[in-house]
Design a protein that fits this description.
With 317 residues, this protein is α/β, with parallel strands linked by helices. The protein is 31% helix and 16% strand. The protein has one domain (12-313): Rossmann fold (3-Layer(aba) Sandwich). It has eleven helices and nine strands. A nine-stranded mixed β-sheet has the order 2-1-3-4-6-5-9-7-8, sandwiched between helices. It binds iron/sulfur cluster. Iron/sulfur cluster is lined by residues 29-30, 33, 35, 64, 134, 138, 214-217.
């Protein structure tokens, strides 16, 4: 006998998750692909926030970045092209207790998924959304995407693309009810981590536009920003993305900013003079649609049957 009284309660420590609890498999992205940096930061966030893997879901569409859920040891759904948003919204409506992340690329989100994207913003469903933008279809080996710049030579535009690109920040900020819109870059992991953390803390649809390197099909895409610090600017805002002094010093340019003004945010998104990193806009006061959807979660089978029968009776002859 161990001398325990029958009603003794063992004071066991709570489960503490380590990085390995969130890791799964070996990421099959090319060497130098920016997706690796985002994955590392997300796994770090999960550990820092001690997210329960059983209550965390990553939903994606189709594309290189959409392989993301395979590398997270959480729940995940690698779905149809452009359809991450409807799936994620459905999950959040039925299971508001889950932490929902959406992973989507520029081809996935801004082309076939554009309608779903716009309405998910409008519904302000409480989830963290990361748009990986490398301005090309990588998985299918170099076709122009909706965000490709004019002149981009690809397999579908051998003489260079002619359409002006769609800008994800301008679109998101243009939709009524946008509540959190931020921009970061995969080559600045500290800024990216601070951005993902702030997005995750925000209650509502948190949209992060991530400038992402594709060294295979867009090898020079980010050179103008990585080789010349004059072209980058940090948005300094006590209510925005806050980085350490050491990281702040790595930016040659910064501006004092107020992320509560939607008009300033829209002007900034249209500006081409620099790449601005930080939180463009935040409004924490907006209601989230998933809360409405969750209202009837406690209804019994009888309650639901009564509502359905009442509806059917309207059409009775
Ligand atoms: Fe990454 Fe480009 Fe390779 Fe796709 S093709 S995994 S985006 S580097």
């Amino acid at each position: 006998m161990f001398g325990l009284k029958p009603d003794a309660v063992l004071d066991l420590p709570e489960k503490h998750y380590v990085l390995e609890d969130y890791e799964k498999g070996i990421a099959r992205w090319c060497d130098g692909c920016g997706d690796h940096a985002v994955l590392a930061n997300i796994q770090k966030l999960c550990r820092e926030e001690q997210l329960d893997p059983d209550k965390t879901v990553f939903v994606s569409g189709i594309g290189c970045s959409s392989r993301f859920p395979h590398y997270m040891n959480t729940y995940g759904f690698h779905g149809l092209h452009g359809r991450a948003f409807p799936v994620a919204c459905g999950i959040k409506h039925r299971r508001p207790d889950l932490d929902v992340f959406v992973i989507t690329g520029d081809g996935d989100c801004c082309s076939i998924g554009a309608g779903a994207w716009i309405h998910a913003i409008r519904y302000n469903v409480n989830m963290t959304v990361m748009l990986f933008n490398n301005e090309i279809y990588g998985l299918t080996k170099k076709q122009q995407s909706p965000t490709s710049r004019v002149g981009t030579v690809s397999n579908t535009t051998p003489r260079g693309s002619i359409l002006p690109p769609l800008h994800p920040m301008q679109v998101t900020l243009g939709v009524s009810n946008a509540s959190f819109v931020a921009q970061t870059a995969d080559w600045n992991p500290a800024h990216m981590y601070a951005t993902i953390k702030a997005a995750h803390e925000h209650k509502g649809f948190s949209f992060i536009h991530i400038l992402q390197r594709c060294p295979v099909f867009q090898p020079k895409l980010v050179d103008e920003w990585t080789s010349n610090r004059d072209n980058l600017c940090y948005l300094k805002d006590d209510n925005g993305i806050i980085v350490s002094e050491e990281i702040e010093k790595t930016f040659k340019n910064s501006i004092d900013y107020d992320c509560s003004n939607i008009n300033t945010a829209r002007e900034l998104a249209q500006s081409n003079d620099k790449l601005y990193l930080g939180l463009f806009y935040k409004d924490s006061s907006k209601e989230t649609y998933d809360e409405y959807g969750a209202h009837n979660l406690g209804a019994t089978i009888e309650d639901k049957a009564a509502v359905l029968n009442a509806e059917f009776d309207k059409y009775g002859i």
